[in-house]
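User: Could you write out the 3D structure of this protein bound to iron/sulfur cluster? I've included everything you need below.
Assistant: Certainly. Input first, then the structure.
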Amino acid sequence: MSKKVKLMQGNEACVEGAIAAGMRFYAGYPITPSTEIAELSAEKLPKLGGKFIQMEDEIGGIAAAIGASLTGAKTMTATSGPGFSLKQENIGYAAIAEIPVVIVDVQRSGPSTGQPTSPSQGDMMQAKWGTHGDHPVIALCPSSVRETFDLTVKAFNLAEKYRTPVLLMMDEVIGHMREKVELPEASELEIVDRNRPSCAPEDYLPYKAEENLVPPMADFGTGYRYHVTGLVHDETGFPSNSTEIADQLVRRLVNKVELNKEDIISWEEENTEDADVIIFTYGCVARAARTAMKTLREKGVKVGMFRPITVWPFPEERLAELSKKVKTIVVPEMNLGQMVLEVERVSGKYTKIERLNKVDSQIIYPEEIIAKIEEVL
Amino acid sequence: MPSQLVEKYFRADKLPQIWCPGCGHGIITRAITAAIDDLGLDPDKVCVVSGIGCSSRAPGYLDFNTLHTTHGRALAFATGIKLANPELKVIVVMGDGDSTAIGGNHFIHACRRNIDITTIIYNNNIYGMTGGQYSPTTPRLEKGTTAPYGNIDKPFDVCNLAAAAGATYVGRSTSYHANLITQLVRNGIKNEGFSLIEAISDCPTYYGRKNKKGGPVEMIQWQKEHAVNVTAASKMTPEQLEGKFLIGEFKNTTEPEYTKEYQKIIDRVKGSDV
Ligand SMILES: Cc1ncc(C[n+]2csc(CCOP(=O)(O)OP(=O)(O)O)c2C)c(N)n1
Ligand code: SF4
């Protein structure tokens, strides 16, 4: 079979990636600029024997996706700002009940209804802190159509491996942009399925973690009759009022991601070896940053680029290392300064950090980044 | 034979339950297991889903696949379970606040889809778990901690709401009429579509105390004296029905069921080019 080379939208690549990863259930509620993800899922899933349902709201969308995941299906829901806000309570539910689910947020301008068709990076901190209480977060951020495919596959793999909700933080530009992509063959992909129990049902402890801090997960309907709750629970899955168990549970949930960071985290670096200035950039802005970097390099300015691919957990060790070698880190963001707070935390003691922020609903142009770098150098 | 049902379907190590003495929720829960027993359902294939509230603690005591979700959202989670694996028998238990206030949207849409889920609403006319605030089923002028001068909201008739929204099986019973609960739940599970059984419960701790309804005995006595079966009611005059409420089977129809309709789509398009 020849490789599929196609002109494709980011939202389309997301659905292709999800299906390649094994998604067989989608539940959601339409919202610009994520709607194509629902529409394409509606078209494609039944052809594969999978299921699509348009729920009555975004809360129902994530709830149905979590419910379906309990039967063993790989599930996804997609939305944008207002819907992402609505999903927050159940993101926390999936985190504490340890149910794999992929949540896509194609970011648009906010707050509230904001500018529905305009891009933004305004939900980056919401991704980290949107649901109440301490909880694990894995959030990935693509900056091209092809990468959207890859990161959607990765999002499913991480959700399955770590029994946790995984956020794919797209933006309107990436979602709607069309690029020529060559998708990999199924055989080239690494696909992870959740670890299911191998013990007899009577010996099954649904929340007893294995060495990687993740408990094996049984599918509802397969003879392992167990209880799932959003209350603090012990290894048996039943609610517990023990302060000790509460402490252990919340720490394990968070550590599941923190202590497996090396396996989860990824980032991309370009021209960092000799850089005087690094552009810290993610999502659609990374595209302008790359052009700015190239233009300045041609002029002899030593500019490099650091692009977190997992924004949460934050690739802080490597960023800290780089910070010691550069004069300045420039952080262009389509918000009033969100990920820069992490950059300041990690790199602030080593180097100067310059913000470049835009919330007029337009993308950041390479010239703006160039001007900023020339100004601060 | 209550002890046999308890032995067979309850998680013995989780008992005694957290409900107050005299709370109607336990009677309703037992009546549901009796229906499951009558139908001889395979416990491995039964899923019991709830939201948050006193009533929603029921699944924790039941030895099935059990899911205690977020407040109001049980039906949305259950919809995902049922659609993903239609082989499972999905039963949802919710409180009146859980189902008709915060979960009202999911409720009417689950009815509308006629998805094969059997839902039992434990209606005690109050928010029990949070300490006695008025709910969408609190009668007018009755009191709750947030209705200290009497409730002015008009209450929902849960059964009418479900029937109007499209549920294909609808009935009501009370914690006094436990056998009728069992019968309705049994028929509801047999119905291939969305079934709603409203089970009038008593909350002596809050609703009873706030409204001077007496203790559990008086409250259950009230249910006995004020409930009239629909068949009997058809022969009664409006005067005779004054102050009474109806119990029994209100609606039993057949309409296309959601997961079966979806399967038809799969059968039609499966295998075509993705
Ligand atoms: C989002 C959210 N809002 C509010 C609550 C608090 N809460 C818990 S149970 C409940 C009401 C329960 O009443 P009902 O559903 O009638 O069930 P009952 O306890 O009477 O059986 C409320 C308001 C919550 N848990 N979650
Ligand atoms: S508060 Fe009311 S509803 Fe809750 S357990 Fe007690 S009596 Fe039952």
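Residues 42 and 240 of chain B are 44 Å apart (CA to CA).
User: Perfect, thank you.
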